[in-house]
Structures are given as structure tokens and as C-alpha cells.
Request: fold
Amino acid sequence: MLVYFILRGGMQMVPYLTKIFAGKPQTMGDKDAKNPMEREWRSAIYKEPVHERVWLSRLNINGDGQADLKHHGGLEKAVFAYPSEHYDRWKNELPAAGLTVGGMGENFSLVNQTEQEVAIGDTYHIGEAVIQVSQPRQPCWKPARRHQVKQLAWLIQNSGRTGWYFRVLEEGFIEAEQPLTLVERPYPEWTIARCNQVMHEEKENLEAARELAACEMLAANWRVTLRNRVEKGENPDIRRRIFGPNE
Reply:
């Protein structure tokens, strides 16, 4: 769906919420399986479409939840958004995986917006709520387990097709097929794509890490990681996050 608004000099596409997804944690797999990819695991990555108006709180969409509250959920990860257009590329690259909209465990499926076009601190009205971009998603091993592609988290990260999180500034009812109306863009230079580059591709670029860590609207966990890189020369071991118990 293409949605436009008129600007001086022409038209510009508006970010648009096409589908909302929510789901509670569930246990899957076989605890006695020999193949790690088939063993028992617990996740809320399987979400169902929400077809009616739904309450968006500071922590999540009503009816949504997380299995691992240490790494998922919370004020800085209240809503996970993913561009629907990415799925065409995933289908071409991983045809056997059967990736379709909702397959990344997103809450918001968006059109007219990608990681190159959204930035940290971008603030939007959506329905009755106000939301703000807080950080890129750093994929863990669970999408790989769901789709039975062991390298999937690595591919998501390296492709830059990560999606991003919103924090909720004002609670309210939302529903699908609503535009995201931009209210404020304080850090246009810190797009999600640029943040991913600094975090994952430019680990030797300490000046960029220092500048990004100073972005006050970036989620605290990202800022701590970047400061540790600059001040202590530390970089987290990402293998555990990316492959986890799938190895």
C-alpha cells in the first residue's frame, strides 16, 4: 500500500502500519531431541495478527509478551517494527525457509519505511499513542530456530535488514491501517542503518562509537556497549547471541 502526503516541491511516502501482531510465550520442540535445532525452547516469536483496535502500553501491545525478559521487552523494546518489503528479498535468498510477514516476530509490519529512512529519536503519532525509535534490533538465535536456518540471525545482522524498536511515550489505542505521523526528528544522522554499521561493521571506528554513544535517545544498553568499546576496548561476544543453543 502506498500512502503519500504533499510537501512543498512534491509528494513523499508516509510510513504506514499495515498489520499488528501479538502473542504470548509458548514452549515448543522436543527436550530429548539430539539435533539442537529441534530441542525444546520457549519464545513469543510466534505472533498472530490483531484485527481490532488494541491498547498500546509503555511495555507492550495488549496480548503480547516475551519469554526472556532479560533480553527482550521492557520500556526500550515495547514494540518491534519490521519493514514488510524485506520479505520479498528473504523469499529470494532463502526460499526454503518460508519467510512471510510476521515471521520475524514483529509487532508492527510497516510499509514505506526501512532502516535507511528511520532514525533514533524519531517520534510519531499512531492512533492515540506516541512512539519513539529507541534502537535497532540485534537478532538472537530464535528466528533461526523458528525457520530452521542456523545462520539466520547472522544473515539478518549482516544484511542490515534488522528492524528496530519503539519506546512508548504516550499510551493509547491503535489499530492496523494507520499512518505514522512524524512529530520530531532530532537525530536524522543516526539512522538505524548507520547505527548498525557502527555497531557491527566499524568496530575500529572509535570516534563514530563515541559520537553514537552520546546520542541521548539511543537505548541505554547500546550506549553502554559503545562506551565500553571506546573506554575499555571491549566488544561483546556475539556468537552466543546469534547461535545460542542452536549449536
Remarks:
- The helical segments are 86-93, 142-147, 152-159, 192-201, 206-213, 220-232, 238-243.
- DSSP finds seven helices and 15 strands in the chain.
- Residues 1-10 have pLDDT under 50 and may be disordered.
